[in-house]
Protein backbone atom coordinates (compact mmCIF):
# COMPACT_ATOMS: atom_id res chain seq x y z
CA UNK A 1 0.00 0.00 0.00
CA UNK A 2 1.12 3.51 -0.79
CA UNK A 3 1.37 5.93 2.10
CA UNK A 4 -0.71 9.02 1.33
CA UNK A 5 -1.16 12.44 2.84
CA UNK A 6 -3.69 15.15 2.03
CA UNK A 7 -2.92 18.86 1.80
CA UNK A 8 -6.04 20.88 2.49
CA UNK A 9 -9.02 19.86 4.61
CA UNK A 10 -11.81 21.94 3.11
CA UNK A 11 -15.01 20.52 1.63
CA UNK A 12 -13.29 18.46 -1.07
CA UNK A 13 -10.29 17.68 1.12
CA UNK A 14 -12.55 15.97 3.65
CA UNK A 15 -13.97 13.81 0.86
CA UNK A 16 -10.46 12.82 -0.24
CA UNK A 17 -9.51 11.98 3.36
CA UNK A 18 -12.51 9.68 3.73
CA UNK A 19 -11.94 7.92 0.41
CA UNK A 20 -8.20 7.43 0.94
CA UNK A 21 -9.08 5.90 4.31
CA UNK A 22 -11.51 3.52 2.57
CA UNK A 23 -9.20 2.66 -0.33
CA UNK A 24 -7.40 -0.67 -0.36
CA UNK A 25 -4.52 0.87 -2.30
CA UNK A 26 -3.50 3.57 0.18
CA UNK A 27 -2.56 3.92 3.81
CA UNK A 28 -3.74 7.35 4.95
CA UNK A 29 -0.94 8.80 7.05
CA UNK A 30 -2.58 12.14 7.79
CA UNK A 31 -3.24 15.64 6.52
CA UNK A 32 -2.02 19.21 6.67
CA UNK A 33 -4.14 22.35 6.68
CA UNK A 34 -3.03 25.91 7.17
CA UNK A 35 -5.85 26.45 9.71
CA UNK A 36 -4.50 24.58 12.71
CA UNK A 37 -7.63 25.03 14.85
CA UNK A 38 -9.79 23.44 12.18
CA UNK A 39 -7.21 20.71 11.61
CA UNK A 40 -7.10 19.81 15.29
CA UNK A 41 -10.89 19.75 15.42
CA UNK A 42 -11.08 17.41 12.43
CA UNK A 43 -8.42 15.19 13.98
CA UNK A 44 -10.47 14.95 17.17
CA UNK A 45 -13.75 14.30 15.41
CA UNK A 46 -12.70 11.78 12.74
CA UNK A 47 -9.32 10.51 13.89
CA UNK A 48 -7.22 11.58 10.91
CA UNK A 49 -3.71 12.51 12.07
CA UNK A 50 -3.10 16.25 11.76
CA UNK A 51 0.35 17.53 10.80
CA UNK A 52 1.03 21.18 11.64
CA UNK A 53 4.17 21.08 9.50
CA UNK A 54 3.81 20.67 5.73
CA UNK A 55 7.35 19.36 5.21
CA UNK A 56 6.85 16.71 7.91
CA UNK A 57 3.76 15.35 6.16
CA UNK A 58 5.46 15.28 2.77
CA UNK A 59 8.44 13.43 4.27
CA UNK A 60 6.15 10.79 5.81
CA UNK A 61 4.32 9.70 2.65
CA UNK A 62 4.75 8.28 -0.86
CA UNK A 63 1.88 10.23 -2.42
CA UNK A 64 0.77 13.78 -1.70
CA UNK A 65 -2.87 14.62 -2.52
CA UNK A 66 -3.19 18.37 -3.03
CA UNK A 67 -6.70 19.71 -2.39
CA UNK A 68 -5.80 23.33 -1.62
CA UNK A 69 -6.90 26.56 -3.38
CA UNK A 70 -5.53 26.89 -6.92
CA UNK A 71 -3.19 29.76 -6.06
CA UNK A 72 -1.17 27.45 -3.79
CA UNK A 73 -0.96 24.50 -6.22
CA UNK A 74 2.37 25.42 -7.76
CA UNK A 75 4.19 26.04 -4.49
CA UNK A 76 3.08 22.83 -2.76
CA UNK A 77 3.28 20.81 -5.99
CA UNK A 78 6.87 21.88 -6.56
CA UNK A 79 7.77 21.13 -2.95
CA UNK A 80 6.22 17.66 -3.29
CA UNK A 81 8.03 16.80 -6.52
CA UNK A 82 11.41 18.06 -5.30
CA UNK A 83 10.97 15.79 -2.28
CA UNK A 84 10.64 12.85 -4.69
CA UNK A 85 6.99 12.19 -3.87
CA UNK A 86 4.22 11.35 -6.33
CA UNK A 87 1.69 14.15 -6.81
CA UNK A 88 -2.08 14.04 -7.16
CA UNK A 89 -3.32 17.60 -7.62
CA UNK A 90 -6.84 18.92 -7.99
CA UNK A 91 -7.89 20.82 -11.09
CA UNK A 92 -6.89 23.26 -12.41
CA UNK A 93 -3.32 22.02 -12.18
CA UNK A 94 -1.94 25.50 -11.36
CA UNK A 95 -2.85 29.14 -11.67
CA UNK A 96 -0.70 29.80 -14.76
CA UNK A 97 0.44 27.78 -17.75
CA UNK A 98 4.08 28.59 -16.96
CA UNK A 99 3.70 27.08 -13.49
CA UNK A 100 2.08 23.96 -14.94
CA UNK A 101 4.86 23.50 -17.49
CA UNK A 102 7.45 23.79 -14.73
CA UNK A 103 5.71 21.07 -12.70
CA UNK A 104 5.68 18.82 -15.77
CA UNK A 105 9.41 19.35 -16.30
CA UNK A 106 10.23 18.84 -12.62
CA UNK A 107 8.21 15.61 -12.46
CA UNK A 108 10.22 14.20 -15.37
CA UNK A 109 13.52 15.30 -13.85
CA UNK A 110 12.69 13.75 -10.49
CA UNK A 111 11.08 10.59 -11.94
CA UNK A 112 7.78 10.98 -10.10
CA UNK A 113 4.21 10.45 -11.28
CA UNK A 114 1.61 13.19 -11.39
CA UNK A 115 -2.13 13.15 -11.94
CA UNK A 116 -4.65 16.01 -12.14
CA UNK A 117 -8.11 15.69 -10.60
CA UNK A 118 -10.27 16.04 -13.70
CA UNK A 119 -12.84 13.76 -12.13
CA UNK A 120 -15.30 13.74 -15.06
CA UNK A 121 -12.92 11.44 -16.93
CA UNK A 122 -14.01 8.83 -14.37
CA UNK A 123 -17.71 9.63 -14.53
CA UNK A 124 -19.38 6.29 -15.37
CA UNK A 125 -21.56 7.86 -18.07
CA UNK A 126 -18.46 9.19 -19.86
CA UNK A 127 -16.32 6.07 -19.43
CA UNK A 128 -19.21 3.98 -20.80
CA UNK A 129 -19.11 5.78 -24.15
CA UNK A 130 -15.57 7.22 -24.41
CA UNK A 131 -14.37 4.44 -26.72
CA UNK A 132 -17.43 4.93 -28.94
CA UNK A 133 -16.57 8.59 -29.54
CA UNK A 134 -14.56 8.39 -32.76
CA UNK A 135 -13.56 11.50 -34.69
CA UNK A 136 -16.41 13.76 -33.52
CA UNK A 137 -16.93 16.79 -35.74
CA UNK A 138 -19.30 18.83 -33.60
CA UNK A 139 -19.52 18.89 -29.80
CA UNK A 140 -21.85 20.85 -27.56
CA UNK A 141 -21.42 21.02 -23.78
CA UNK A 142 -23.47 22.76 -21.10
CA UNK A 143 -22.32 22.93 -17.48
CA UNK A 144 -24.70 25.02 -15.38
CA UNK A 145 -24.66 25.36 -11.60
CA UNK A 146 -26.65 27.20 -8.99
CA UNK A 147 -24.72 29.99 -7.30
CA UNK A 148 -22.26 28.94 -4.60
CA UNK A 149 -19.74 31.42 -3.15
CA UNK A 150 -17.13 28.65 -3.02
CA UNK A 151 -15.01 28.81 -6.17
CA UNK A 152 -15.86 32.36 -7.19
CA UNK A 153 -12.26 33.44 -6.65
CA UNK A 154 -11.56 32.19 -10.20
CA UNK A 155 -13.46 32.68 -13.50
CA UNK A 156 -16.20 30.16 -14.27
CA UNK A 157 -13.95 28.79 -17.02
CA UNK A 158 -11.44 27.52 -14.44
CA UNK A 159 -14.15 26.60 -11.95
CA UNK A 160 -16.55 24.65 -14.20
CA UNK A 161 -15.84 24.77 -17.93
CA UNK A 162 -12.39 23.21 -17.55
CA UNK A 163 -14.08 19.87 -16.81
CA UNK A 164 -15.59 19.84 -20.30
CA UNK A 165 -12.41 21.22 -21.88
CA UNK A 166 -10.43 18.26 -20.53
CA UNK A 167 -13.08 15.70 -21.55
CA UNK A 168 -13.25 17.13 -25.07
CA UNK A 169 -9.47 17.25 -25.47
CA UNK A 170 -9.33 13.59 -24.47
CA UNK A 171 -11.52 12.51 -27.42
CA UNK A 172 -10.59 15.02 -30.14
CA UNK A 173 -7.30 13.84 -31.60
CA UNK A 174 -6.30 17.18 -33.07
CA UNK A 175 -4.64 20.43 -32.09
CA UNK A 176 -6.64 23.56 -31.32
CA UNK A 177 -6.71 25.97 -34.26
CA UNK A 178 -8.83 28.88 -33.08
CA UNK A 179 -10.82 30.01 -30.04
CA UNK A 180 -13.49 32.67 -29.68
CA UNK A 181 -15.31 33.34 -26.43
CA UNK A 182 -17.36 35.73 -24.35
CA UNK A 183 -17.88 36.02 -20.61
CA UNK A 184 -19.98 38.13 -18.25
CA UNK A 185 -19.47 38.98 -14.58
CA UNK A 186 -22.87 39.11 -12.88
CA UNK A 187 -22.25 38.54 -9.18
CA UNK A 188 -18.51 37.94 -8.88
CA UNK A 189 -15.48 40.01 -9.80
CA UNK A 190 -14.67 37.38 -12.43
CA UNK A 191 -16.96 36.02 -15.21
CA UNK A 192 -19.86 33.93 -13.90
CA UNK A 193 -21.15 32.82 -17.29
CA UNK A 194 -19.11 32.06 -20.39
CA UNK A 195 -19.40 30.62 -23.86
CA UNK A 196 -16.51 29.38 -25.96
CA UNK A 197 -16.19 28.06 -29.49
CA UNK A 198 -13.13 25.92 -30.12
CA UNK A 199 -12.09 25.04 -33.66
CA UNK A 200 -9.64 22.18 -34.14
CA UNK A 201 -7.18 21.61 -36.98
CA UNK A 202 -9.17 18.58 -38.19
CA UNK A 203 -12.35 20.64 -38.61
CA UNK A 204 -14.06 19.64 -35.37
CA UNK A 205 -15.92 22.45 -33.59
CA UNK A 206 -16.78 22.42 -29.89
CA UNK A 207 -19.27 24.86 -28.38
CA UNK A 208 -19.06 25.12 -24.58
CA UNK A 209 -21.28 27.01 -22.14
CA UNK A 210 -20.67 27.30 -18.41
CA UNK A 211 -22.61 29.22 -15.77
CA UNK A 212 -22.53 29.35 -11.99
CA UNK A 213 -25.60 31.58 -11.69
CA UNK A 214 -28.15 29.20 -13.13
CA UNK A 215 -31.52 28.36 -11.59
CA UNK A 216 -30.83 24.66 -12.11
CA UNK A 217 -27.88 22.32 -12.35
CA UNK A 218 -26.95 20.75 -15.67
CA UNK A 219 -23.85 18.91 -16.91
CA UNK A 220 -24.43 17.57 -20.40
CA UNK A 221 -22.33 17.02 -23.50
CA UNK A 222 -23.31 15.87 -26.99
CA UNK A 223 -20.95 14.46 -29.58
CA UNK A 224 -21.85 14.30 -33.27
CA UNK A 225 -19.84 12.13 -35.65
CA UNK A 226 -20.39 10.24 -38.89
CA UNK A 227 -23.39 7.97 -38.49
CA UNK A 228 -23.63 8.50 -34.73
CA UNK A 229 -24.89 10.85 -32.02
CA UNK A 230 -23.67 10.37 -28.45
CA UNK A 231 -24.98 12.21 -25.41
CA UNK A 232 -23.56 12.17 -21.88
CA UNK A 233 -25.35 13.43 -18.80
CA UNK A 234 -22.56 13.80 -16.24
CA UNK A 235 -24.98 14.87 -13.51
CA UNK A 236 -27.56 12.09 -13.88
CA UNK A 237 -24.86 9.61 -14.96
CA UNK A 238 -26.74 8.58 -18.07
CA UNK A 239 -25.67 8.23 -21.68
CA UNK A 240 -27.28 7.58 -25.04
CA UNK A 241 -25.78 6.34 -28.30
CA UNK A 242 -27.83 6.71 -31.49
CA UNK A 243 -26.31 5.17 -34.62
CA UNK A 244 -27.24 4.94 -38.28
CA UNK A 245 -26.54 2.22 -40.79
CA UNK A 246 -27.71 1.34 -44.28
CA UNK A 247 -31.33 0.25 -44.16
CA UNK A 248 -32.11 -3.40 -44.92
CA UNK A 249 -33.88 -4.12 -48.19
CA UNK A 250 -36.86 -5.43 -46.25
CA UNK A 251 -37.20 -3.42 -43.03
CA UNK A 252 -38.82 -4.99 -39.99
CA UNK A 253 -42.10 -3.69 -38.63
CA UNK A 254 -40.36 -1.83 -35.82
CA UNK A 255 -37.25 -0.64 -37.70
CA UNK A 256 -36.76 3.14 -37.72
CA UNK A 257 -35.95 4.18 -41.29
CA UNK A 258 -35.02 7.64 -42.59
CA UNK A 259 -34.85 8.57 -46.26
CA UNK A 260 -33.07 11.67 -47.55
CA UNK A 261 -33.90 13.76 -50.62
CA UNK A 262 -31.68 11.57 -52.82
CA UNK A 263 -33.59 8.46 -51.76
CA UNK A 264 -30.82 7.05 -49.54
CA UNK A 265 -32.30 5.07 -46.67
CA UNK A 266 -30.72 4.72 -43.25
CA UNK A 267 -31.79 2.72 -40.24
CA UNK A 268 -31.60 4.32 -36.79
CA UNK A 269 -30.74 2.07 -33.89
CA UNK A 270 -29.71 2.49 -30.27
CA UNK A 271 -26.46 1.15 -28.90
CA UNK A 272 -26.58 2.22 -25.28
CA UNK A 273 -23.84 0.72 -23.11
CA UNK A 274 -24.34 -0.20 -19.49
CA UNK A 275 -23.42 2.50 -16.98
CA UNK A 276 -21.86 0.97 -13.89
CA UNK A 277 -22.30 3.13 -10.76
CA UNK A 278 -19.06 4.18 -9.13
CA UNK A 279 -17.40 6.77 -6.93
CA UNK A 280 -15.47 8.78 -9.51
CA UNK A 281 -13.13 10.41 -6.97
CA UNK A 282 -12.21 7.05 -5.46
CA UNK A 283 -11.66 5.64 -8.94
CA UNK A 284 -9.33 8.47 -9.94
CA UNK A 285 -7.30 8.09 -6.75
CA UNK A 286 -7.08 4.31 -7.19
CA UNK A 287 -6.13 4.66 -10.85
CA UNK A 288 -3.23 6.88 -9.79
CA UNK A 289 -2.07 4.20 -7.38
CA UNK A 290 -2.20 1.68 -10.24
CA UNK A 291 -0.12 3.98 -12.46
CA UNK A 292 2.51 4.26 -9.73
CA UNK A 293 2.60 0.53 -8.98
CA UNK A 294 2.66 -0.49 -12.65
CA UNK A 295 4.88 2.39 -13.83
CA UNK A 296 2.34 3.52 -16.43
CA UNK A 297 1.13 6.96 -17.50
CA UNK A 298 -1.72 8.24 -15.31
CA UNK A 299 -5.07 8.52 -17.05
CA UNK A 300 -5.08 12.30 -16.51
CA UNK A 301 -1.40 13.19 -16.52
CA UNK A 302 0.20 16.51 -15.62
CA UNK A 303 0.56 17.07 -19.37
CA UNK A 304 -3.19 16.59 -19.84
CA UNK A 305 -3.91 19.03 -17.03
CA UNK A 306 -1.53 21.54 -18.57
CA UNK A 307 -3.19 21.30 -21.99
CA UNK A 308 -6.64 21.84 -20.46
CA UNK A 309 -5.31 24.88 -18.57
CA UNK A 310 -3.77 26.31 -21.76
CA UNK A 311 -7.11 26.14 -23.56
CA UNK A 312 -8.94 27.57 -20.53
CA UNK A 313 -6.54 30.51 -20.41
CA UNK A 314 -6.96 31.10 -24.15
CA UNK A 315 -10.71 31.25 -23.59
CA UNK A 316 -10.33 33.72 -20.73
CA UNK A 317 -7.99 35.87 -22.81
CA UNK A 318 -10.58 35.91 -25.60
CA UNK A 319 -13.17 37.67 -23.43
TrEMBL record:
It comes from the Bacteria. GO terms for molecular function: nucleotide binding. Residues 3-118 form the Gfo/Idh/MocA-like oxidoreductase N-terminal domain. It holds the Pfam family GFO_IDH_MocA. Residues 156-216 form the GFO/IDH/MocA-like oxidoreductase domain. InterPro entries: Gfo/Idh/MocA-like_OxRdtase_N (IPR000683), Gfo/Idh/MocA_Oxidoreductases (IPR051450), GFO_IDH_MocA-like_dom (IPR055170), NAD(P)-bd_dom_sf (IPR036291). PANTHER family: BILIVERDIN REDUCTASE A. This is Predicted dehydrogenase. It comes from Salinimicrobium sediminis. The lineage of its organism: Bacteria, Pseudomonadati, Bacteroidota, Flavobacteriia, Flavobacteriales.
Amino acid sequence: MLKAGVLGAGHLGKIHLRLLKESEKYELVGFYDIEEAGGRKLEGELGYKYFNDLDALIAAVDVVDVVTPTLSHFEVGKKTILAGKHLFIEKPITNTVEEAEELVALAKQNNVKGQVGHVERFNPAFTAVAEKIENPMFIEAHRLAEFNPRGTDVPVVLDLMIHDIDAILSVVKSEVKEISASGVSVISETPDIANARIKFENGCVANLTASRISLKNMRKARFFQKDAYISVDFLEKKCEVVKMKDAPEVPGDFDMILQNAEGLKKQIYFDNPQVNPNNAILDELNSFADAIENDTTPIVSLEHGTRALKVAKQIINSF
